[in-house]
Amino acid sequence: xxxxxxxxxxxxxxxxxxxxxxxxxxxxxxxxxxxxxxxxxxxxxxxxxxxxxxxxxxxxxxxxxxxxxxxxxxxxxxxxxxxxxxxxxxxxxxxxxxxxxxxxxxxxxxxxxxxxxxxxxxxxxxxxxxxxxxxxxxxxxxxxxxxxxxxxxxxxxxxxxxxxxxxxxxxxxxxxxxxxxxxxxxxxxxxxxxxxxxxxxxxxxxxxxxxxxxxxxxxxxxxxxxxxxxxxxxxxxxxxxxxxxxxxxxxxxxxxxxxxxx
Length: 262
Prior knowledge:
Elements: E1 4-14, E2 20-32, H1 36-42, E3 46-48, E4 54-56, H2 69-79, E5 89-94, E6 97-98, E7 106-112, E8 118-126, E9 132-137, E10 146-151, E11 165-170, E12 176-185, E13 188-200, H3 204-213, H4 217-234, H5 257-260
Parallel strand pairs: 3-4
Antiparallel strand pairs: 1-2, 1-13, 2-5, 4-6, 5-7, 7-8, 8-9, 10-11, 11-12, 12-13
């Protein structure tokens, strides 16, 4: 099977207005979107579109609705005028639902040819309002990493400006996997976020072990986000108002009512 998982270390470092950093260990599934049903048949702990200890639901990704993730992804790529004729595999790297709970700060899609060579990637960035924004990254740098610097125009955090830039640096999907996402303002880097992962096969025994190694994984991630936000609020960091910056937030999928109410 083409599907696997990655044991990862995620690291965040804020450089201004004051320096602050933290890291945590997680795992992410790396799923061939054509293998989801086969994985569910093979591993009793994993399900597609139904409740289980681990689950992937089509409705959690891209636009709302129960259309398959793959079909929604292809529709997005066609809107971007991306030629999918050479794509043989669509791989999703993401956090699963755990005990029914879902939160994904970012998921990645790899578009691979029949030889497993990545032709492009897509980053699906999320926020705590469960909004999504998609970024196609199809240009490689000298390291053979996918690279794109682009306007964010998306509310990620109250402590991050809407009009900052994202600098995506996404490594290819190998035994070792690396991603850097920098938040930039006019003066340089504001926040550095990195993911470093090691590939492992998906086995039932490993999925059982990860319940103990990474208990309540997605709930822990959302807790850490809010905990560090609280500390920054106590220290009176400048805050971006989501409703007042609604006009700056563009191409948002699943927009919160703060963007749609007049």
